[in-house]
Amino acid sequence: MADEPMPTRWSFQDFKFFYEAKFGRKKIEEQKQNGEIADKGVSNGIASNGNVHTRNTSDLAVYEQFQSQGQNSNHSNDYSVNHMDEKPQKSLLPPFESAEMRALGESLSRDIIRGNPDVKWESIKGLENAKRLLKEAVVMPIKYPKYFTGLLSPWKGILLFGPPGTGKTMLAKAVATECNTTFFNISASSVVSKWRGDSEKLIKVLFELARHHAPSTIFLDEIDAIISQRGEARSEHEASRRLKTELLIQMDGLTKTDELVFVLAATNLPWELDAAMLRRLEKRILVPLPEPEARRAMFEELLPPQPGEELIPYDLLVERTEAYSGSDIRLLCKEAAMQPLRRLMAQLEQMQEVLPEEELPKVGPIRPDDVDTALKNTRPSAHLHAHKYEKFNADYGSQILQ
């Protein structure tokens, strides 16, 4: 008899079952002792040479047997749950149409954030307007789905735009922490492939995974690298155009379903995005440079006052950091904290012998002149296109009217 066709992908449990049935001599001997197999070695589909035969017809493939057996069983991360009293877990992957799509789904499953980023709304200083819009668009539809039906259906696309270093990725981490959704952290490397046709298949599989794990959030960081403006005048590769088209179709096409799948995108260049993508990103939220109150809160958290030491001039810092982003403020505080460490390192370098770790002296306090030095050495990096962000926000941005 010819060998049965092998399945394309097996779980460990399927392989174990097939191996024991084909090569498990010990199991066959036990079945002989129990009278389940006749002495001549052939009964109920297991021959004396270890080959597996089907009960009804020999033309049924082994993979089809397992497929029919697996219809009543649930799989979670390639582990089969057959005869257990506990509640079955949801499968990691949806039933794909081919083994190729399943392999792409397994690669995208690595981008699911399973750990907790541990970023609370309160840990983000300022950005009250952006946080309020995000809560309205993502958090409230999950907490109160009764009210978000019909015309008030949840927004499916949200764009965070603004200067670099203002907290767009921090807001996305807060969404992953505070919202009970499956969070997909997607970058250009996740959905771009060198093989022809795989890029658009990855987009399709991504949204199938998101709908399978709904409610879910797809975070597309630096989305301008994925879906910039389309046009004949631009030097655009055919594969890139097909990827953009598939993304637009999946976000708002015939495949649109009622599952809660949020697309959260972030970019520093919103004017580079395609007009069709801007239409699908219904909420366009500006993440601006921090206000004076937010800058003061950042300085007080990063450079806390120490009892018995000279006070840090927070007012001077707030006044002289007008165009600084949150990332620039963190670098400024790091530079100020390095000044007393540099003085201590200079003293240690002059010593001939190396002190053990327990005898090393403590780092001294931060002085007001250290703050002046840090201000001279750290310059803002995110203020160059501030007027362009304001114009884009005036043209396309989402506002909250009091």
Describe what you observe in this structure:
It is built from 15 helices and eight strands. The chain has 402 residues and is an alpha/beta fold. It has three domains: 74 residues, no CATH class; 178 residues, Rossmann fold (3-Layer(aba) Sandwich); 88 residues, Helicase, Ruva Protein, domain 3, CATH 1.10.8. The strands form two sheets. It has a six-stranded mixed beta sheet, sandwiched between helices. The longest helix has 25 residues.
What is the radius of gyration? 30 Å
Helix share, percent = 40-55%
Question: Between the first and last Cα atoms, what is the distance in angstroms?
Answer: 79 Å
Secondary-structure element series: HHHEEHEHEHEHHEHEHEHHHHH
By CATH reckoning, the class of the largest domain would read Alpha Beta
Major sheet attributes: 6 strands, mixed
Number of domains: 3
The average pLDDT value, as a whole number, equals 77
- At the fold tier of CATH, the topology name of the largest domain is Rossmann fold
Strand content: 5-15%
Total helical elements: 15
User: Can you tell me the residue ranges where pLDDT is under 50 for at least 5 consecutive residues?
Assistant: 37-88
Question: What CATH architecture of the largest domain would you give?
Answer: 3-Layer(aba) Sandwich
User: Based on helices, strands and strand pairing, what is the structural class?
Assistant: alpha/beta
Based on CA inertia axes, which overall geometry fits? globular
Neighbour order of strands in the largest sheet: 3-5-6-7-4-8
Number of separate strands: 8
CATH homology superfamily name of the largest domain: P-loop containing nucleotide triphosphate hydrolases
